[in-house]
Amino acid sequence: MKHPTERFSNRVEDYVRYRPTYPQAILPFLEQTCQLRADCAIADIGSGTGLLTQLFLNYGSPVYAVEPNAAMRGAAEQRLNSHSGFTSLAGRAEEIPLAADSVDFITAGQAFHWFEPALARREFERILKPGGWVVLVWNQRLETTPLQRAYGKMLLAHAPDYAAVNHRNFSGIESLSNFLKPGAFELAEFENVQHFDFAGLKGRLMSSSYAPTPDQAAHTPLMQALQQLFDQHAESGRVQFDYVTQLYYAQIS
């Protein structure tokens, strides 16, 4: 399996076009619960192509987008450089290129499960201002519809890396209680949805690091299974993907 910082290098275009964004409802929620304001400085760690970064930039906050993968970081820069509050930094959770006590919030979207917890915790404590917040977010694909249950079974059957990556994702969530000690963390959940034609569904799949690429033997059977799944479940040429956006938040010092 590739190193985490390189797993998405060949998937950037699909990631930008087909990954779900984050619900706008996150912003008023953080205003009410964590005193988020537009002048709060935010470090978005493992920022990727900037999907979560963009949410806070549009809100008006200055955001330091810290990303180790050059291709992902470049895509974020291309999309977001027009925002005056956007700063792109090459770095990782275990070695963040920011000064001590420099940010009010640390965020991570779809990224915490790739961090080395002990080293990341040390860095989070270092760069957070007193009273600052850690906000960790995942878009979790639901399996509450026949389509999405069939999609999960398809991945288990045809994507050899899926089980390992999926387990790592959930293991990351389960480790939060240790990472966020001594403070208690809270969970908020938000609805999220996407609609795809077949090209979009294929792009959504290929944006995932576990999806076999065209040079791999498993790719063709996976695409055949995906086409069959789409044909069985599409209505008016489209399918719906439902997510729950899970937001964990805590003060760690």
From TrEMBL:
Keyword Transferase: yes
InterPro entries in the record: Diverse_substrate_MTase (IPR051052), Methyltransf_11 (IPR013216), SAM-dependent_MTases_sf (IPR029063)
Any Pfam family hit: Methyltransf_11
Domain spans labelled Methyltransferase type: 44-136
Keywords: Methyltransferase, Transferase
Record-level GO BP terms: methylation
SUPFAM superfamilies named in the record: S-adenosyl-L-methionine-dependent methyltransferases
UniProt GO molecular function: S-adenosylmethionine-dependent methyltransferase activity
Keyword Transferase in annotation: yes
Source superkingdom: Bacteria
Family: Belongs to the methyltransferase superfamily.
Protein name: Class I SAM-dependent methyltransferase
Organism, scientific name: Vasconcelosia minhoensis LEGE 07310
